[in-house]
């Protein structure tokens, strides 16, 4: 005998995860069919189909959302799978050589700071933030100077905020307690997070600025 009410979790997902303005109509139709003797498994299948169909419809209607989801997944994978994107090997080698010169008195600490900004952090910032932000804004059809500058400013703020926290004590603890495999994976994900979080902040700032600009145009 079929229960009198559909599964509670499925009903909650139907009301909160189906995008668009037809949620009440879909819920009414499914409830009516359920009361006619449909099973809970059937109800779950219909709810899952409704969620996927609404998401697909929204993505087709909103190119920026679809492009954002694809870009985030693709770029996060690239940062994890290809660490050279985040910090090119030649730059790392040059950086070690320069620090060696400073340690042996051939260059000052002021020279090292200038070198880090121009040849280490500069190229890394260009590769991790500037280039992908331009690609993202171009794909989202929002490539303009105002959005770009706003995104870069928020990326810088995110980088400064990340420097206030250190994950190194956690990694040292794992290394000391023989969890080298966990240490390696956490370190890679930490590097991805540190490199990706500022870009996410830049993407959000650039697109949120676009939304406010459109609101001003409409209300004006």
C-alpha Rg (nearest Å): 25 Å
Taken as a percent bin, the fraction of beta residues is under 5%
Class computed from helices, strands and strand pairing:
mainly alpha
Number of helices: 9
Number of strands: 0
Q: How much is the average pLDDT?
A: 76
Q: What distance separates the N and C termini?
A: 60 Å
- Spans of at least 5 consecutive residues whose pLDDT stays below 50 are 213-220
Overview features:
single chain, 220 residues, mainly alpha, 2 domains, 9 helices, 0% strand, disordered C terminus
Write a brief structural summary:
Helices cover 80% and strands 0% of the residues. It has 220 residues and is mainly alpha-helical.
Descriptive account of the structure:
- With 220 residues, the protein is mainly α.
- The chain has two domains: 8-60, no CATH class; 62-219, no CATH class.
- It contains nine helices and no strands.
- The longest helix is centred in the C-terminal third of the chain and has 40 residues, at 180-219.
- It is elongated and about 85 Å long.
- The N and C termini lie far apart (60 Å).
């Amino acid at each position: 005998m079929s229960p009198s009410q559909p599964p509670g979790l499925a009903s909650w997902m139907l009301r909160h995860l189906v995008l668009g303005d037809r949620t009440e109509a879909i819920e009414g139709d499914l409830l009516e069919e359920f009361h006619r003797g449909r099973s809970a498994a059937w109800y779950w299948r219909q709810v899952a189909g409704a969620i996927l169909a609404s998401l697909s419809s929204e993505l087709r209607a909103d190119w920026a959302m679809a492009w954002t989801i694809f870009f985030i997944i693709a770029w996060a994978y690239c940062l994890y799978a290809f660490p050279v994107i985040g910090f090119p090997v030649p730059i790392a080698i040059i950086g070690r050589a320069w620090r060696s010169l400073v340690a042996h008195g051939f260059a000052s600490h002021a020279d090292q700071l200038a070198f880090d900004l121009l040849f280490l952090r500069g190229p890394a910032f260009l590769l991790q933030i500037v280039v992908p932000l331009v690609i993202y804004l171009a794909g989202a059809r929002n490539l303009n100077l105002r959005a770009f500058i706003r995104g870069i400013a928020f990326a810088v703020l995110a980088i400064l905020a990340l420097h206030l926290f250190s994950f190194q004590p956690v990694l040292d603890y794992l290394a000391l307690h023989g969890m080298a495999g966990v240490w390696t994976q956490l370190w890679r994900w930490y590097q991805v997070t540190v490199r990706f979080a500022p870009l996410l902040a830049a993407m959000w700032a650039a697109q949120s600025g676009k939304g406010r600009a459109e609101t001003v145009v409409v209300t004006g």
